[in-house]
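Ticket #4471: structure output looks truncated?

Reporter: J.K.
Steps to reproduce: submitted the chain below (284 residues) through the standard prediction queue, then opened the result file.
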Amino acid sequence: MNINLLSFNVSIGKKKPRTIKGYKPADSACPFCAVDKLVDIIDTDGSIILLKNKYQVIENSYQLVLIENDVCHSDIPDYTPEHLYKLMHFALSHWVDMVNSGKYEVTILFKNFGPFSGGTITHPHMQIVGFPELQPELMFDPAEFAGITAFSSDGIEVNMATRPHVAFTEINIIATEAAYPAGTNFIKGYQQHQPGHKIILPETRSINTMADMIQQTITFLQEIHPSPSFSYNLFFYLYDGRIHLKVMPRFPTSPLFIGYNIHFTSTNIQDLATRLTTHLTTHI
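Returned output as attached by the reporter:
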């Protein structure tokens, strides 16, 4: 099996602060609350801050942190539409700018939330990471974006994944060609960039609708997985030159997936898709 393999710098990783409950020790002061002490800031928009990650733990990569706001114990479901839209435009613009720089074979945008998400900091943030040597075709399987359609608006579609990347209630949010300006030239396949070609963003209205869908999808997952340890990831992808997004609830991962690469879907997936349709139709 071909894989993308990188080195994790353990000596740097040991120095990372930890504020998520469950980590030992989890008594670090939040580094993102001390705005006056932040360095290597690249851009800001109000309380949104993009900066170089102080802890470059992944070898042969360039890591950025995007601080979402100045309220430490908050998350996307709490955001006003104004802040939500501003955040999504800011994040997508900087992600695509890194893609279009041509410096990296793969550039990723993702978010951790909660103790099972793989993150260490409670303060709401995303990460943008550029990898100069990874193979994009090994990052994901396009079949994982297929699913039972739950909602569609402004060229953005939501589905309940029928072939989840890991397991159960994964939700895909996909920008179709209708979300982009007329005449957009799309790169086909896994490749993120080509010489002389620039990835462009969907129309403003479509990005706003995508932001609404992200917010309400997370709210839906919180309702069906009520737990103080509720966790999820947002994973953004570029495929066929268009934005694809996974909203992935996180739990202790099945040993059958970890040990044997056996994926699971749920027996009530159609019911969940119907409930998701009702939720999104009601709230968007």
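Triage note (M.O.): checked the attachment and the full token line is present. The first strand starts at residue 41 and ends at 45.
Status: closed, working as intended.
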